Amino acid sequence: MKVALFVPCIVQDFQPQVAQATARILARAGVSVHYPKGQTCCGQLQYKSGNWKSARAVARHFMEVFQDCEAVVAPSGSCVNMVRKYYPELFRDEALWMDRALELGKRVFELTEFLVGVAKVEDLGARWRARAVYHDSCQVYRALGIHKEPRALLSRVKDLELVEMEQADVCCGFGGSFSLQFPAVSEAMVADKVAHILATGAELLISAEISCLMNIGGYLLKQGHRVQAVHIAEVLAHGGE
Amino acid sequence: MRVRSLEFGQRAQEAVLDQQLQRNLQRIGVRFKVGRDMAFAALEDPEGLRNLGRAIKERSLANLPHLLETLEAKVKEAGGTVHWACNAKEACRIVCDLAKQRAVRTVVKGKSMVTEEIGLNQALEAEGIEVWETDLGEFIIQLAGEPPSHIIGPAVHKSKEQIAELFAEKLGSPKAQAPEELTKIAREKLREKFVKADMGITGANAAVAETGSIVLLENEGNIRLSVTAPRIHVALMGIEKVIPTLEDLAVILALLPRSATGQKLSSYTSIITGPRREAELDGPEEFHLILLDNGRSRILADPDRRQSLYCLRCGSCLNVCPVYRKVGGHSYGWVYSGPIGAVLTPQLVPARLARQLPFASTLCGACAEVCPVKIELPKLLLTMRQRLTEDPNFDGGIPLLVRLAARFHGWLLTHPRLYRLAMDGARAASRVLVRDGRWLWLPPPLSQWARNRHIPTPARPFSSTWPKLKKELVQGGEGA
Ligand code: SF4
């Protein structure tokens, strides 16, 4: 199977190691990975800030870039949800593009969803010695319904002790432009999240959503907590062979 | 009620710093959310019931003019009077006129969000009429001179200590601490008013067209008294509250208390049809129903926003909203708060006065997960954002500069090479501003974000490392 890597804009320029890890895992799962040229972003920021006209242009571009791909995999639930759920919404009045959106939506997968559901691999031979806690991102869990897959994958990581935190599914307060427009509220929300993380005594915070990680990880770092925030791809690609 | 929604950012910031408020808000989760989840888990088919509830609202609103006419005819048949009010001013005038014509001096009120919406208390007081809120929560905030902060718990933002202090100050009562004591003090105070009052005003949780009845749910029994003790009963409701039959009501009655407080049924459910009849001992001599539009038919006419009228005002979207639970109801600056408030307020007041509200959400979706009639709140919030930003007819007021920046960013994203160039340029520029992995300077609003959060610095983009990685993967026999 040939899989196209969709590298979200934040990953491309700020967290490239997440995309690298994603490519490695996919290769390890036995699929051939390629990286379509010309990809930029899914248009989520445009859409969620109310600029649907711009979002449509970005979405069309996205669909052209990925149109011939058998499967598209991204290390971000929110970007996948954007394509799958909101593209059809954006093109409600343009039948042709709507069809394309619906069709592509079926071939776009969040990483853990793809590994467990499509490639049918859970054990990627990874190893990481740590006590870890998994954060259910709203977009991964509530929007896409992905809850068991990441836990199944993490349970196969050697030496990783996975614990659960209280209110794992409560929002971390990022919400894209929300955290820029209302920084104080967002900060109060992430402070709650961090308190729950610290209460577990975990050394590692894992999530399948890069934006949550930027928010929670950024807070952990600035407040001087020793918990490391990593994307699930980084864990699954770690120390294996 | 004055719209203060433009102050959301400022008030929200104050709210998160208010330690007492934070403690008070924390209890909401325990009090309501847990009960709600348990009540629904105990149902055989909770999803089926919610679907049924939604279907009832869909059907009722699709058929609204007809239902309202039936309701009017049935109310008349039962001896009541129906009034139609286009807006807040009209509704207030109708009530004030009724009160003046009948020489009403004192009014007792049952909890009603719609009377808050139209500012009825102020209007009556301006006519020299005394108004007493009889719901304990409403009574508390009336004493405090505050608007409600929650759809079903108007005083949920206050602790019992704060309430005890308020009572001591305003009613001269001893500083009692136990909630039962406080309830007793309020009850004694209100009892005199019930006896004195000539008019009782309530809202309506629903109205049944087939029988011409209005339905009131409550736990304290005071609404019941407001309805029966005075000689005139005036009920106010938004036109969207009407449902066709008693059978439909059974569904609403199963959903509403479960969502609101986790109860199977509220302590009191009153179904009122017309005034007292000849042989009856209880009930008012006159019954008036005011049907309020106040922007609702405009919402009804818009298929994209219509579902905002399905709301039963149960408040559970507030209880689970992580933003509401941090900022409290007053931050929203108008009657309705939380997710449904963020959707409704810009539709019911001039949109530009509430333009921040639809953006004051992380779109986490917790609200939609609990809504008893499955209102797609995130979708509505997104629709409202689009209207505010793009629709020239929607009086939005998003600054031009913000809109232009978004458009430019969108344009860049459809031109991959230029986008790459821009990002490379930004990275080069950032080198000057980054020392040891930390930013020396950031523009607002990023600077505020970064106050307590580390912001990552641009790295070598993935695309430039891909060719090497690809080779490595192929050589490693790992596909690609
Ligand atoms: S939107 Fe739904 S959850 Fe929120 S108050 Fe209305 S009925 Fe209740």
Compile the SSE list and pairings.
The complex is a heterodimer of chains A (241) and B (480).
Chain A: E1 2-5, H1 9-14, H2 16-28, E2 32-34, H3 44-48, H4 52-66, E3 71-74, H5 77-90, H6 95-105, E4 108-110, H7 111-118, E5 127-135, H8 138-143, H9 148-155, E6 158-163, H10 177-181, H11 183-199, E7 204-207, H12 210-222, E8 228-231, H13 232-236
Parallel strand pairs in A: 1-2, 1-3, 3-4, 5-6, 5-7, 7-8
Helix pairs in contact in A: 5-6, 7-9, 11-12
Chain B: H1 8-17, H2 19-41, H3 46-62, H4 64-77, E1 81-85, H5 88-101, E2 106-109, H6 113-118, H7 120-126, E3 130-133, H8 136-144, H9 160-171, H10 179-196, E4 199-202, E5 206-208, E6 213-218, H11 222-228, E7 232-238, E8 242-243, H12 246-261, E9 268-272, E10 286-292, H13 296-300, H14 316-320, H15 324-327, H16 338-348, H17 366-370, H18 377-390, H19 400-413, H20 416-433, E11 434-435, E12 438-439, H21 446-449, H22 462-475
Parallel strand pairs in B: 1-10, 2-3, 2-4, 4-7, 5-8, 7-10
Antiparallel strand pairs in B: 5-6, 6-9, 11-12
Helix pairs in contact in B: 2-12, 3-12, 16-18
The structure holds iron/sulfur cluster.
